[in-house]
Amino acid sequence: MTLNPHLAPQAPGPANPPPALPPGGLRVVALGGIGEIGRNMTVFEYDGRLLVVDCGVLFPEDAQPGVDLILPDFRAIEDRLDDIEALVLTHGHEDHIGAVPFLLRMRPDLPVYGSRFTLALLAAKCREHRQRPALHEVREGERRDVGAFGLEFFAVNHSIPDALAVAIRTPAGVVLHTGDIKLDQLPLDGRLTDLAGFYRLGAEGVDLFLVDSTNAEVPGFVMPERDIGPVLDDVIRRVDQRVIVACFASHVHRVQQVLDVAAEHGRRVAFVGRSMARNMGIAAELGLLRMPEGLLVDLDEAAALPESKVVFVSTGSQGEPLSALSRMARGEHRQISIRAGDTVILASSMIPGNETAVFGVVNGLVRLGAHVVHQGNAKVHVSGHASAGELLYLYNAVRPSNVMPVHGEWKHLRANAELAVRTGVDPESVVIAEDGVVVDLVDGKARVSGRVGVGHVYVDGLSVGDVGESTLSDRLVLGEGGFIAITVAVDSTTGRAVSRPTVSGRGFSDDPKALDAAVALVEMELSRTEVEGITDTHRIAQAIRRVVGRWVAETYRRRPMIVPTVIPV
Amino acid sequence: MTLNPHLAPQAPGPANPPPALPPGGLRVVALGGIGEIGRNMTVFEYDGRLLVVDCGVLFPEDAQPGVDLILPDFRAIEDRLDDIEALVLTHGHEDHIGAVPFLLRMRPDLPVYGSRFTLALLAAKCREHRQRPALHEVREGERRDVGAFGLEFFAVNHSIPDALAVAIRTPAGVVLHTGDIKLDQLPLDGRLTDLAGFYRLGAEGVDLFLVDSTNAEVPGFVMPERDIGPVLDDVIRRVDQRVIVACFASHVHRVQQVLDVAAEHGRRVAFVGRSMARNMGIAAELGLLRMPEGLLVDLDEAAALPESKVVFVSTGSQGEPLSALSRMARGEHRQISIRAGDTVILASSMIPGNETAVFGVVNGLVRLGAHVVHQGNAKVHVSGHASAGELLYLYNAVRPSNVMPVHGEWKHLRANAELAVRTGVDPESVVIAEDGVVVDLVDGKARVSGRVGVGHVYVDGLSVGDVGESTLSDRLVLGEGGFIAITVAVDSTTGRAVSRPTVSGRGFSDDPKALDAAVALVEMELSRTEVEGITDTHRIAQAIRRVVGRWVAETYRRRPMIVPTVIPV
């Protein structure tokens, strides 16, 4: 019996409703994304009206078994849906757009603002949910007034094309939200983060700066995406067998470089995995991915080509068990079987928590004889988030009065806060406000004013929210120790057992006789309860639970769930 | 509903019993530790007699929920226990000695050879199991004949004192097993890996070389352990609040450096965690840890000292949920509460699979205001295993005829094999033989001759082996989706329900009405089985499982375990 490492997660602080927002003040609260990496969603309030920036999902950890997705907690706005002026999306990653369909269920006519590629990805997602959201395309450099909120959009560089930062002007002051950002000075598409715009805004005066914290702990600068091309070229030019490259399905520039190298070496390309094919189709259509005529082939054509004439571009870089790459590693992929001497390139990061799964895939591929290239042995990945060195540039450009680190766990938020202070921001004006903590910008000062309840909202299968902490806690107990079910029918007037009790376990033991000794124990207890005149089935069940629980703890030193059922007949 | 990433682990190859070992040949088979990191155990056979090197445990992964430990699979030797001449232990880490008590249960009089510190740690472990093994202390440079096996021991450097490599001489040839090894050229205790001895043995001729693969993928050389002292000094000298250092409880040299730095800065030291206090006590007693008089205080004394006058040395560096450090991070430790400005140093590696737990602890500490120093932001850890550069030294010293990489997953084994080949070993003579694969050394050639069954043997609570793959597979299903139990009593002659069916779920939903609709469904099905004259409770149960399973899949798109119980009355 081991204890689950996650049974006592850090509880969020208690709710503490803030006072009314003073006239002329701006209120900011994150319903997700601060204190965690994922489900980004920040709500801004001015004069009774709301603006939402991003609405993403978080992928569950071991402590949340069986859950598909975790949504931001909409409770703080669910009674004020009509107050929302608009939803602004900074870019098209799942942790920024994945929960939009769930928000649209509550407010189908919500105006959604975003760049062309972002909205195209959202539209594809919404089609799967049979939704047709009201989309408003915006571009970098553009300004839009949305109710009381004056929006201005800035080009930023990230691991997906067409990302935006957004400035929000209200009489309370100027807010700048970076979204996810880095400062690649040689971006593949030439679209630089608009540092000039940030300097201009900084000169105008930025009252509150919300800054991506993901890589704040990492010193220095992220290498240009462009530098990965030559590494891919160097690997692919040396081999004369199959090459499989796995990366994120939205990383257009990474895929672009694979395509370019493939073309250079006379190889055709096949996309493997539904999301990869879909997203690259959208990117090509919007002119964000250059695909030379005839380069692309379908999977069956590719499988028939000579091994030296093909590159597969696949999903599965995080070790997802159902992905094409995991199937290949297990020797179970229908069209692609790995042969000794094949090359697999994991052109991707390893998201914390996925290490075991990714290493499992790598070991499986190596066992089959593949040569596996990954960020541990070659420069085949760069991050999409600004490192500390780049964040310093941002702070020095914007020179904000107040700073609120976003997008990160505590260690990232704290590291980002320290960077802000080192560039001269008053420590009093750097506010680490995890999910639910309410920050009010009043008279140019950002201060915590209270806290609203923000919990985890789970999507499991078709339903949202019915799986909660109690169900997850039961799953953790069941997953660790299984259960023992004891069933008996009793005469409801005398409390006498009218059947032999059945005692059976699942997830408890492979030994079919493991629970045999418990039957007599239950029978003895039933005699006792009968003698004592106990007829209440609930009390009889409790008595059974107690004796079986004690017996199993002493005999096996384990803690399965004990599930007694007493049927009155 | 998500699918568990581990439901389809890579199956080991089928068993294929080897032919009889030719006279004069030596047989080698790993019952653990090759193809995985942990539960190291290698069996050597010559002329019908067996020698075992190491007998460790493996700690379970997510795919093995609720399991405490995984043992080597003793099946291949359980009928031949009396053939075992001796067990040789290379060092005192759990993955090399942890399973010894389980082997001793089968063969209590088994002679055990090892160095002084290794045997002291084993003796402490065996006392907990109420065992008194037959211990034979050996030292580096020593030779012992154990039946047909001529043993010679060599000093090696690792992350625990007093580690040994062992040479095994039989008429079949000379075998050298490194155990866990690195080549720190400035070891804290001055005890260098005996490279001179390896050169001498190499000149004599090594027929088979078993080599630690753990860091074979890592280029270059491991930094000296000694270089960590100045980093610790640099951190501790700057702070005037509490310092907590977490590291492995057997890492005597790491702890030594903490003690030295503490003494230098006038701080007393308290050990936190039972294994830390016990192991450091043993090390001090054997003269392996220098502890100045009066430096050590107990936890209550330490808690009463001024904050600038104490260093806590704690377990919990892997995020173990019950460890002192995890309790501190949750604000639940009885004696030590973290205050803003305290410093926590994780002077440790992060074992793959523990990332989420370790980051959870770091975030908890940072949230409480602690400054956390770890290998990601300071040089406070070095590995105990030779990197590629060091392994090349070993191959060039030993110049083996045959090589068998040990201690590693496939990616490590393959990388180690490549290093052997690059130093000139014939690729045909480098044998990657995962657990159970039988390697015979005959006429100076090592070749695979067959395979014996090696599975995972689980310890869960008090029992060994009764939790198997079927139980784990049930736990995975239960942990992902919980279960729905349906119970009904039926008249055993007519098949008619004599109670209303109860339908209840655990780990399924927080909504108490989630399963209400299933009751009517079950009643309808019971009417149907009654009308069809079905009285067999097993068939009735199957019918119930089918309708409820289909209903829940359609309604919720989830796959809980469906557990029908039909009681005949």
UniProtKB/TrEMBL annotation, chains A, B:
Keywords in alphabetical order: Calcium, Cytoplasm, Endonuclease, Exonuclease, Hydrolase, Metal-binding, Nuclease, RNA-binding, rRNA processing, Zinc
Gene expressing this chain: rnj
Subunit structure: Homodimer, may be a subunit of the RNA degradosome.
Name by which UniProt lists this protein: Ribonuclease J
Pro residues: compositionally biased ranges: 11-21
Highest taxon, organism lineage: Bacteria
Enzyme class: hydrolase
Note on how the cofactor is bound: Binds 2 Zn(2+) ions per subunit. It is not clear if Zn(2+) or Mg(2+) is physiologically important.
Record: residues binding Ca(2+): 66, 68, 460
Domain Metallo-beta-lactamase: 38-232
Cofactor: Zn(2+); Ca(2+)
Binding site for Zn(2+): 91, 93, 95-96, 158, 180, 407
